[in-house]
Design brief:
9-stranded mixed beta sheet, globular, binds (2S)-amino(hydroxy)ethanoic acid, 16 strands, binds manganese (II) ion
Length: about 425
């Protein structure tokens, strides 16, 4: 049985979670959500706040080419494979204060606790604040972990544009990143990756378990669907003479819900829609909407998407609509390391925390690491299962439990 490291400094962690949450764009006083999009000013302020927090914790701090921030606790053997923890600093729009942030600050807290209580590790320990994971600003996700694990390349985001028409390459450069002379993000020296995260679901709360040990992460497909009809006068155009892009989108979204409801454990969402000309007395000529489809089985996920696209083609043809479907994310379901999962279970038993293995319906940076090094993911409960919302909440004691598990696991991976 390994060492039990107990973290109890809920004040330290709580203060820094609040401090990081303050680094956010706000739409006026009533906006309670956290909005921190890649390469924006609030993103930069947040990364600098975290760099200071890492330095305070006694870590050596560095940036890589795409803006991942890394804090390092040097090992006795600096050449040994690195034990890495961390999560993403960006958020969805008007999201919560814990998604991503908790995994970074919990990682800093764990390294600080280990440094203070166990001294120098055998193998280097690092905590990373990934620059982007959500896909909230540009139509690409996992920009930070994807560049670190080689599934994305820093030159690959050039022509991707945000809603204002700014390209990812221009935003990266304006933030001081994306320069040839900066250290590559790609890592070849990783021995293990462990991500600490809120569950963002309601299972742990319902099952009254203190810790979730993730055994796998669902696969995802994200698309943008553009329908082209004919803008026309809402008053003078008879119903049988319309090519209404909004009505077409509505039929497609209802169809999505119907088909998804029939497939156990498949989830499908339209989260964003843009309408043109978006005027009450004009029949919409163009509608763009998004699809986010997830399942824990690759075969089912790809079958469902192929079938849905065929259905959409039939609907578009019947309605005389032009249609373009652009895929912009495709990840396969990813298992976590069984060995680390069992190790995490032993750690929970040692600390005396109830726990259960579970699948993650949310995507995470951990899914990018699982193919390149032994990877584990630790969840703490989310109150009411709420996340991607200002009402995201986990108690200080539950947050501290997660850090205790992380610190104990990192101890076994880096000290023993
Ligand atoms: O959307 C997700 O699955 C995660 O929050 N990026
Ligand atoms: Mn998220
Ligand atoms: Mn997240
Ligand atoms: Mn994540």
């Amino acid at each position: 049985m390994g060492e039990t490291i107990r973290f109890g400094d809920t004040a330290w962690l709580g203060e820094r979670i609040d401090g990081l949450a303050a680094r956010s764009d706000r739409d006026g006083e009533s906006d309670r959500g956290v909005t921190r999009l890649l390469y924006t000013d609030s993103w930069k302020e947040a990364q600098h706040y975290l760099a200071e927090t890492m330095k305070e914790a006694g870590l050596a701090v560095r940036w890589d080419k795409v803006g991942n921030l890394i804090g390092r606790l040097e090992g006795r053997d600096p050449q040994a494979p690195v034990v890495l923890t961390g999560s993403h600093v960006d958020t969805v729009r008007h999201g919560g204060h814990l998604d991503g942030a908790y995994g970074i600050l919990g990682g800093i807290a764990a390294l600080k606790k280990l440094k203070e209580s166990r001294g120098t590790p055998e193998r280097p320990l690092e905590v990373v604040s990934f620059c982007e994971e959500e896909g909230s600003r540009f139509p690409i996700a996992y920009w930070g972990s994807g560049n670190m694990t080689g599934s994305l390349d820093w030159r690959g985001g050039g022509d991707l544009k945000d809603e204002e028409g700014t390209s990812l390459a221009a935003a990266m450069e304006a933030s001081g990143f994306g320069r040839e002379d900066q250290p590559d993000s790609r890592r070849y020296d990783l021995g293990a990756f462990v991500e600490l995260h809120i569950e963002q679901g309601v299972l742990l709360e319902r099952m009254a378990k203190q810790i979730g040990i993730v055994e796998g992460i669902v696969g995802q497909r994200r698309y943008s669907v553009t329908l082209r009809g004919e803008a026309n006068h809402a008053g003078t155009t008879p119903m049988n003479m319309r090519t209404d892009a909004m009505a077409g989108a509505a039929e497609m979204i209802v169809r999505l819900e119907l088909l998804a409801a029939r497939k156990a454990s498949l989830v499908a969402t339209t989260g964003r829609m843009q309408v043109a000309p978006n005027i009450p007395n004009v029949i919409p000529g163009t509608v763009e909407f998004t699809l986010d489809i997830r399942h824990d089985n690759e075969g089912t996920l790809s079958w469902f998407c192929d079938y849905l696209i065929q259905e959409y083609e039939d609907i578009a043809n019947r309605r005389g609509l032009g249609m373009t479907i652009t895929p912009w994310l495709a990840t396969t379901p990813v298992p976590m390391s069984l060995e680390l999962t069992e190790q995490a279970e032993r750690v929970c038993a040692g600390i005396g925390l109830s726990n259960r293995r579970m699948f993650s319906g949310a995507g995470h940076d951990a899914q990018l690491f699982a193919p390149v090094c032994p990877t584990a993911m630790i969840f703490v409960p989310s109150r009411g299962g709420i996340s991607h919302s200002p009402d995201e909440y986990t108690s200080p004691e539950q947050l501290a439990d997660g850090v205790s598990v992380l610190a104990s696991l990192l101890y076994e991976l880096a000290y023993e």
